Each structure stands twice: as structure tokens, then as C-alpha cells.
Amino acid sequence: MFHLLEIPKKVIYGRGSVLFLGGELKKIGNKFLILTGETSLKRSGALDRIMNEINKHDLEIIVITGIPAEPSLEVAKQICDRIVGNNFDGVVGIGGGSVMDMAKIIAFTLKTKLNPLEAKGKEIEEALPIITVPTTAGTGSEATKFAVITDESSKDKFIIMGKALIPTLTIIDPELTFTMSPLIASSTGIDAFCHAIESYLSRNSTCMIECYSKSAIYDIYNLLPEAVLNQSEKAKERIAYAAFWSGVAINNTKTTLIHAMSRPLGGMYKIPHGIANGILLPAYLRFNAPFIPPEKYKFLKDLFQGEPAEKVEEFLKTLNLPTRISQIIHEELDLDFLVRKAWEAEFNIKNNIRPVTEEDIYNLFLEVI
Predict the structure, then answer these.
(1) What whole-number distance in Å separates Cα of residue 106 and Cα of residue 127?
(2) What is the CATH number of the domain that holds 282?
(3) Is-above-0.90 flag for pTM?
(4) Could you report the average pLDDT of every consecutive run of 10 residues in the chain (369 residues)?
(5) Three-state DSSP string of 95-142
(6) With 0-12 CB in 10 A as exposed, 13-18 as middle and 19+ as buried, what is 78?
(7) N or C: which end of the chain has fewer CB within 10 A?
(8) Same structural domain for residues 16 and 62?
(9) In a domain, 4, yes or no
(10) Is 171 within 8 Å of 255 (Cβ atoms)?
(11) Could you tell me the residue range of the domain that residue 76 belongs to?
């Protein structure tokens, strides 16, 4: 039996590495669409520094700022309408997971002329070159073949995926993450933590991928509080790399039950993705505990110095993150909708180490309310 390790074609990392972006783009082509988030990159001065460097390389650039959190089909269509008639050599996403996912969606749409809905459940084989520069440390989109998008009309948050969405170039400059607020740093860090644990405990985990997932689990558990609470730049740098390792891990194993359940929480109730994942993580660990191989359970128990589910709940509280949905949502949840949407995430459900039923999902939602 053999396995394929899928990672971005080229990865440049280190403090100040974003200044290589212009030169690297020139090797790919001459005309690029750059997408960025709403305000933080501009406010910090980083966008101006990046554009000043890019402008030295005689490139034709169109910049669209203001990409919102939780990308939607409607926003993707608006962007495509704005740039109609342009022939780009690639799409650059400089921002958090939402920006990088939108870059993938636009790269796919421009290349194929298809609506992302038409790609749901299919392997994407064509897209323009994708260049990702993360400014948060957690989503792992800079390492994956996945992009998440929401259909606002149906409240359906879904994934498109395929090898064509793996970035051609990823630049991990930890300095771009240094200005994250404590809430963003903790919630994106927990997202990466969930990625690493889900990959480690997935049915598709292999010894090669566990090098990535275990390293990420170790560093995030030990260093995220230092990065968030004490603003340690050394810790923030390690978390930026750990987020990438987690992304590599899930790119090769896929995620499991947590992501099946967190996606409808985001689509229906707008709970930020990392926060939703964090709320579900202790219950997920309790549910799966009887099926976790002894050597893996021992690794987690030794690292956390106690029972994994309980220690992770303490970890969330240390980071000032919620541990129950009711702490952030004060309306009655439509559990039937949540269970139905979670159950539709077939590949997540089948990849879970413990067999899952719809009743299990219902009970897990009840546990975290």
C-alpha cells in the first residue's frame, strides 16, 4: 500500500518573507488579482509595505479589499462581476482563512466559468494558480485543497475541494500574525488545534502525517497561551508554523466529526469557525475515547497531563474561549437542521475513528448547548 503526500508546490517561510512575494509572482506571470480582508492589513501598514514591494516587479495588479469573514456565493459573484474581462495569471489571497478560501473560489470560477455550487461533492481539477499569504494562524487554508463557502439563501455552509485548489505558492510570514487581537489569535489557534487532533485521530492518519499532526498538537498546546496571553512573538511564530502543519495534516487525512458539526453552526448561527470547533472538541474527545488506540490516547494524556477532554476544556477557559453554545447564542437551536446538515458531511462522518449515528450527533449537540 502507498500514500501520496499533498502539499503546496512551494513554501517560503520566516519573518519578513512576504517581501519575496513580488519576485515570486513574476516567476508565475504578469497579471494578478489580490484579495485582502476588511481593515486590519491596511490599518497595520502591512498592505502598503507589501504593495510597495510588488510594484518593483512591473506587474499588473488589481486589488480588492474588504473580503468579509465567512465567504459567500453572493460575495464571490460580486467579485467576478467586478473583474469581468480580465485575464489573470493567478489569484493571491492575503489574509485569514476567509480571504484565502475566497481566492481559491475565485481562481476556480475564473478558470472554469462554473458556479461553486456546481462543484459541490466533485473533485476540482482546474483553477488558476493560487498564492496564499496567511495573516492569521489557524485555518490552514494555505496548505489545503479545501475552500469553505456559504449559500446564504439556504444557510448551507459547504466545502469545495480538489488538488487544483492546493496553493502554487504559500508564504508564511509570522510577523503578519503579530497584530491579531487575542480573540482572533485564540480562536484561530484552536481551529488549528482541532485540525491537528482530528487528523491524528482520523481513520486516514498515517505515520508520515502524524509527524505533522503531533508536532502541531504539541506546539499549540504548549505555546498558544503564551502567544495569546503574554503576546510572545517567539510563541506567535511557532503557532504560525504549527497552523501550517495542521493544514498539511488535514489536507492529507481530511477532518472528522467536529467539522461535520461545526459547519452548520457557522452557516445557520454565524458562530466563528474556530470557536465552534473549540466548543465541540471536549465532547468529541469524550465520545471517541473508547475507540482511540492506546498509544495515541497515551500521547494525548501525557501531553495534557490528565484526561484529554477535561484538560482541553480547561485549555479553552485559559484562552477565554466559550465552552458552550449558550454562552454566545441565546436563541433556541434548530437541532433537527443541525443534525441533518452534519449528517450530510459524509466524508467527515466516515473518517471519524468511532462509527457515528444521527442519534450520536443529536446527543453531542445537546451536550455542548
Answers:
(1) 9
(2) 1.20.1090.10
(3) yes
(4) 94 97 98 91 88 96 93 94 93 97 97 93 96 97 96 90 98 97 97 98 98 98 98 98 98 98 95 97 98 98 98 98 97 96 96 98 98
(5) ECHHHHHHHHHHHHHHHHCCCHHHHCCCECCCCCCEEEEECCCCCCHH
(6) exposed
(7) N
(8) yes
(9) no
(10) no
(11) 10-176
